[in-house]
Write a structure and sequence with these properties.
This protein has eleven helices and eight strands. With 308 residues, the protein is of the alpha/beta class. The strands form two sheets. Strands 3-2-1-6-7-8 form a six-stranded parallel sheet, sandwiched between helices. A two-stranded antiparallel ribbon has the order 4-5.
């Protein structure tokens, strides 16, 4: 995929592959959102976000921020159920998911394993097939794992008339399914190469992780005419500090130890829905306190049979 022309020349700390991944994800997200129905604005006017600020938007990490656990692992369970891989692979998959649930931290080796496994398994499958399966898996494993508090934060932005995007290393098609089910604007996710609607087994750039997320947000903001100083971003992981640092309103949600320390040092807003702890800084909408993969990798986390 050719690099997008939205960005003006500048010095980047991210790698070229991170930039490519970010721009590809932003392009896929914009195409998807153009087909979505406009969000209806309510009468609510919280202190933040600002009602009617069209140059503001919100960017939400997915795993352990919007949803308990990792979308990749939940999707893998659904693939196993549909016999995309065998029983012997399930034990390792289950261990990885249990580790993620307990630690709440992304592990680079696990993420690499997920990427390699997903690409191997979806190669030759049609994008439409995996998207359809993603709809079913959302209902089976993901819907009940959405954090009500984070969902309320996203709704506050929607009610203020702002766009809300998921930003995740999960496959862009799966991210778009989750975004659509939650009534959000769209999703930025890892983009896998496809030709004539069939996955080739290759990525466009690299997984949307770390610096690549920041590049995706930057590209989308440029294309949408957003002022990042008026935007908000939400994440649980220190890996997303580059994305959080881009915006004027960064939030640490269910933060890992490194992000919690970083957020406190910079006086970022904090909220932990795992323990019920109150926000460390005022300004979060009260509703949140009540709690009320061109395509993605799409297989997300089945475990590769090459490691038998």
């Amino acid at each position: 995929m050719a690099a997008l022309g939205w960005l003006t020349p500048r010095r980047r700390s991210a790698t070229a592959r991170s930039v490519l991944a970010g721009e590809a994800s932003a392009e896929a997200a914009r195409k998807s959102s153009q087909e979505a129905t406009a969000t209806e604005v309510s009468d609510a006017e919280p202190e933040f976000p600002v009602l009617g600020d069209e140059q503001a938007a919100a960017f939400f990490d997915l795993d352990n921020t919007v949803m308990q656990g990792a979308a990749l692992f939940h999707f893998g369970r659904g693939l196993y159920k549909r016999k995309f891989f065998e029983t012997r692979d399930l034990a390792r998959f289950a261990w990885q998911q249990a580790w993620f649930r307990l630690a709440g931290v992304e592990d680079p080796e696990h993420m690499q394993d997920a990427r390699d496994s997903a690409l191997s398994i979806v190669k030759g499958h049609r994008v439409a097939e995996l998207t359809s399966i993603g709809e079913e898996i959302y209902d089976e494993y993901m819907a009940e794992r959405i954090w009500p508090g984070t969902r309320a934060l996203a709704q506050a932005h929607l009610d203020a008339g702002q766009k809300v995007w998921l930003v995740t290393a999960a496959p862009v098609e799966i991210a778009q399914v989750i975004s659509r089910r939650l009534g959000l604007t769209g999703a930025l996710g890892t983009v896998a190469e496809s030709v004539d609607g069939v996955y080739t087994g290759k990525l466009v750039g690299e997984p949307l992780h770390g610096p690549a997320k920041a590049e995706a947000v930057r590209a989308l903001a440029a294309a949408e005419g957003l002022d990042l100083s008026r935007c908000a971003a939400y994440s649980d992981s220190h890996n997303d500090i580059p994305m959080l640092s881009l915006v004027g309103h960064p939030y640490a949600i269910n933060p890992d130890t490194k992000l919690r320390k970083h957020a406190r040092k910079l006086d970022w807003r904090l909220r932990d829905y795992r323990t019920g702890r109150k926000a460390a800084k005022v300004g979060i909408p009260a509703a949140a306190g009540v709690g009320a993969v061109a395509g993605g990798t799409a297989a997300a986390i089945a475990l590769h049979r090459r490691r038998r």
